[in-house]
Design goal:
Length: about 500
């Protein structure tokens, strides 16, 4: 029995059809009704616990609300909220209803929000009073405002009984809007109910999640990591999922880990870097596994946490793959700087420097909404192609070198920003760094580094020169920062991932 067959046996409850919410919530509500499913903690430290039985009832209520609104199955329900209880109950309740859930990150302003709502043909938008102000058009859309008196009355009157709508395995459960691939428009990636098989199995193998774990995924559910490994996968395991509702703050994050005795963490390398100056071995005494995602995990960060007793398991995947594809996992010997090996059942290759996979696999996107040609463009010579670049060593370990759209071409040579950032992180003055290419009439592009300094260092022209020469000496004579800009902070997503695109836009 392979890893996916094992997962199917555990979570698919019917012969030919399924509903992921029945497998992730209702199944546990019957077996362990009083067990905490979700524990929310505000920035001020206030907590709210929701058991699996309570989660079943709340998702039933939301599914019934959609039914009372005369919403047809397969309608598209956008969820535009900060981290809160209603993200989880509306996301799961929508899928239980037989419709398609589409979570969005709360930071989108009017233009970005409207672009996604229109391209996704939104039937319903779930939001709050404050975020609703960013919506330009209400035509043909039902708007559910969770902090309105109307909603509170409606949801209170809804029945707590609802039978999940069973779907064909390849029917869409949720969509993730992404523009991460070079040159592609913002579009909705469709992920099926059957993707749960791979999401569940990778949660077992890589996250090493057990039913008694106290798990924390730091990503907002509007990003694919927060959707798949912040909602679906941990609930499929039946563990307790912790949600910190505030933004990044190193002291508060460390306190959150200690106070709640978190055992497994999934986060971005940037967040791990930002914790370096504050965290110690005692703070991580209850943590047995940390996994990272979203950008390269440098050997500097890996080695720091190894000294604290934890070898970080870096992972690689995309919205379009639906689940982890290449990863380190607890039983795999680690190579600092490597994102690991292809997971069982995954056949990965490097083609023309680009990470490629042999289709199909359970989590693979089933389409891109209203973009059939774009969907087809991912498949070349019987391979699914990403726009991510990597190398592979003789032992089969993959090393991420960057995205095609992040690569810098200077004096005719391609330079990976990841490699330069990794060198700069070794300098004692550097706390955080992001590297981009900026236009240059002679060289095409030159390298610019944005650096946040350690508290004990002050900005100066002398330090700029020292940092440039540090890269020149330790990396390459042609590929070092010609410009260095000191920053108070770097632009990041809510989950801690650096947004290089914002730096490029601001430079223009």
């Amino acid at each position: 029995m392979d890893i996916w067959q094992k997962a199917e046996k555990e979570i698919i409850l019917h012969d030919k059809k399924l509903n992921i919410v029945e497998s992730c919530v209702d199944r546990h509500a019957q077996a362990t009704p009083n067990k905490p499913a979700l524990i929310f903690q505000s920035e001020k430290g206030n907590k709210k616990t929701m058991s699996y039985k309570e989660l079943e009832k709340k998702t039933n209520k939301f599914a019934n609300l959609l039914k009372e609104l005369k919403l047809k199955q397969n309608s598209r329900v956008f969820i535009f909220l900060p981290k809160c209880e209603e993200i989880y109950t509306s996301f799961l309740g929508t899928i239980k209803h037989g419709s398609i859930a589409i979570p969005l990150f709360e930071a989108f302003e009017s233009e970005g929000l409207e672009l996604r709502l229109s391209r996704g043909d939104a039937n319903v938008v779930v939001t709050n009073k404050e975020l609703a102000k960013r919506m330009k058009k209400m035509d043909h859309r039902k708007v559910i405002v969770i902090d309105s008196d109307e909603y509170k009355k409606q949801i209170e009157n809804c029945s707590e009984e609802f039978k999940p709508v069973l779907k064909d395995k390849k029917e869409t459960a949720f969509m993730i809007f992404t523009s991460s691939t070079a040159g592609t428009p913002i579009a909705g990636v469709e992920i099926s109910h059957y993707a749960l098989v791979q999401q569940h199995s990778t949660a077992q193998l890589v996250l090493d999640l057990k039913e008694n774990d106290k798990y924390w995924c730091t990503a907002h559910p509007g990003w694919v990591t927060g959707t798949v490994y912040g909602i679906i996968a941990p609930l499929s395991i039946g563990c307790t999922n912790y949600i910190y509702e505030g933004h990044f703050d190193s002291k508060k994050w460390i306190q959150f880990i200690k106070e709640n005795k978190i055992s497994v963490i999934y986060t971005a390398p940037t967040a791990l870097r930002m914790l370096k100056g504050e965290i110690n071995k005692e703070d991580l005494s209850t943590v047995r596994n940390i996994c990272s995602v979203g950008e390269a995990l440098t050997d500097t960060v890996f080695n720091f946490y190894k000294k604290l007793g934890i070898e970080i398991n870096d992972t690689y995947w995309q919205s379009e793959t639906g689940a982890m594809m290449i990863a380190n996992w607890p039983a795999l010997k680690k190579k600092p700087g490597s994102m690991g090996k292809p997971l069982p059942g995954i056949k990965a290759k490097i083609r023309e420097g680009t990470i490629s996979f042999e289709p199909p696999w359970p989590g693979m996107m089933t389409g891109i909404y209203r973009h059939e040609n774009l969907y087809k463009s991912y498949f070349k010579n019987k391979l699914f192609t990403t726009n991510d670049l990597a190398t592979i060593d003789k032992q089969g370990y993959f090393f991420f070198t960057g995205r095609k759209d992040d690569m810098i071409k200077t004096s005719g040579e391609r330079v990976s920003p990841i490699e330069i950032e990794s060198i700069l992180m070794r300098h004692k003055a550097v706390k955080e760094v992001a590297v981009i290419g900026i236009p240059d009439q002679v060289k095409g592009q030159i390298i610019k580094a944005f650096i946040v300094l350690q508290k004990s260092f002050s900005p100066s022209d002398k330090l700029k020169e020292e940092l440039s020469m540090f890269v020149k000496k330790n990396y390459a004579g042609h590929a070092y920062p010609k410009e260095v800009q000191f920053m108070e902070s770097l632009p990041k997503t809510n989950s801690g991932k650096i947004i290089r695109m914002k730096l490029r836009q601001d430079h223009k």
